[in-house]
Amino acid sequence: MTTPAQLPATMRVFERGWLSANNVLFIDDQTGEAALVDSGYVTHAGQTEALVESALDGRPLHRLINTHLHSDHCGGNAQLQARWHPRTWIPAADAAAVSAWDEDALSYKATGQQCQRFTFDAVLHDGDRLRLGGIDWEVVAAPGHDAHAVMLFAPGPRILISGDALWENGFGVIFPELDGESGFDEQAAVLDRIDTLDARIVIPGHGRVFDDVAAAVTRARGRLAHLRGDALRNATHAVKVLVKFRMLEVQSVSRDALFAWMCDTPLMQRIHARFMPAQALDGMFDQTLRGLAGVGALTLDGDLVVNRD
Fold this sequence. Notes:
The chain is of the alpha/beta class.
């Protein structure tokens, strides 16, 4: 847990890894209300609960808010709901899918990831206002990485909770483009909107809290231009990210089992058919493993694939 000196005392950031998104805990000393933004991946749900419980020091968790519903941001929702029964806010556009628990629409089946079913009490729209930790926050739509994502911005202290719309060095995979939908234009518009917010501090979905916001936006624009130059780049990157996420989850697995997972993952099949039809799926798999091994993200040990952090 970190509370950087530049953040208000009512805010605490749990900087997680790449399997679980960062969590932001608010405790309003005047009202006693506690709220959490994002809850990590389901296999870390026990750890998330323990972190929150320790920081709450006997208080209940009153509210739970999700910037978007990718599995690494909401996978702990069900466990936190079972423990504290917080009122839960999700992006409005995801309400029907959560109500029906449509794992196709929610991306969990498509990406070969897990998420325990959870419920919600209210929805977030662009322009909505919330009060968290004694601070006024605005909901800011952030399509691009995820078509339904939102950010939270506090105009007073100029703090942005950006989810996966902006990291210190880039942003999340532009998933809509993988299925032939628009995402690059939306990501560009989100970066423009972040510019207009004039944030002083950014709490990203992954990585450390940072304050050189202008430089991060510049790097993100450069990254976006690179991806837009050839859609295959975004697709190849997405395959690597999904495989790396799987490795973070299982830590070690046989090549055959990992390839079977890839074959069973609908988004992998769609990426292969749309972007790499001339290449056999096992060729895409081998190329991905070599690429990840080449940058030290995993180790190939005979028939065993081993994660490296």
